[in-house]
Design goal:
about 65% helix; Rna Polymerase Sigma Factor, Chain: A; 2 domains; RNA_pol_sigma_r3/r4-like; elongated; Arc Repressor Mutant, subunit A; mainly alpha
């Protein structure tokens, strides 16, 4: 068994066996990242493969710190680039027509498990889903999201609020209560 540092060094030397080990080490976690940003498994696989190629091509630029964080950032950026390239082909929703509900006293989202939440997130309209993932799951702030997506910071905040509202409505609609 090799350490992460040994695997990285092997990859920097373009050794295929170490690239395979790196792929095995991170493939499941990074595929989960890709799936959160797409509408289909096919799109997620495209992003996944493109991002891994970028990781291998730019691994010599890695200079320390959290390697998984460095890899994750490449995957998220690749997913965002995919979103930008395909945005014009995707159905555009008029978000102003979607009603917002008043927040409840109890945060329903905190009462479900992560697998259920991921299923619900994947059902969000794409604009909501991308911002929800970037803010809640990846930990970016609204300014960073606005820069990545070329939108106003207020739009990021609004889309996040609408995504949360949409998730709560979906939970209530499917009778998932605060007692879960």
């Amino acid at each position: 068994m090799y350490t992460e540092e040994e695997i990285i060094e092997g990859c920097k030397q373009d050794k295929a066996s170490f690239q395979e080990k790196l792929y095995q080490l991170y493939s499941r976690r990074m595929m989960a990242v890709c799936v959160r940003y797409t509408n289909s498994r096919f799109e997620a696989e495209d992003i996944f493969h493109e991002a891994f190629v970028k990781v291998f091509k730019s691994i010599n630029m890695y200079s320390g710190g959290s390697f998984e964080g460095w890899v994750r950032r490449i995957f998220v950026n690749t997913a965002i680039n995919h979103y930008h390239k395909n945005k014009k082909y995707q159905e555009q929703l008029d978000y102003s027509t979607i009603e917002e509900s008043a927040p409840s006293g109890e945060d329903i989202l905190s009462q479900i498990n992560s697998q259920e939440l991921l299923l619900l997130i994947n059902q969000l309209p794409e604009g909501y889903r991308v911002i929800f993932n970037l803010y809640v799951i990846e930990g970016y702030n609204h300014r960073e999201i606005a820069e990545m997506l070329n939108i106003a910071e207020g739009t990021s905040k609004s889309q996040l609020a609408k995504a949360k509202s949409h998730l709560k409505k979906t939970l209530l609609k499917f009778s998932i209560s605060e007692q879960c």
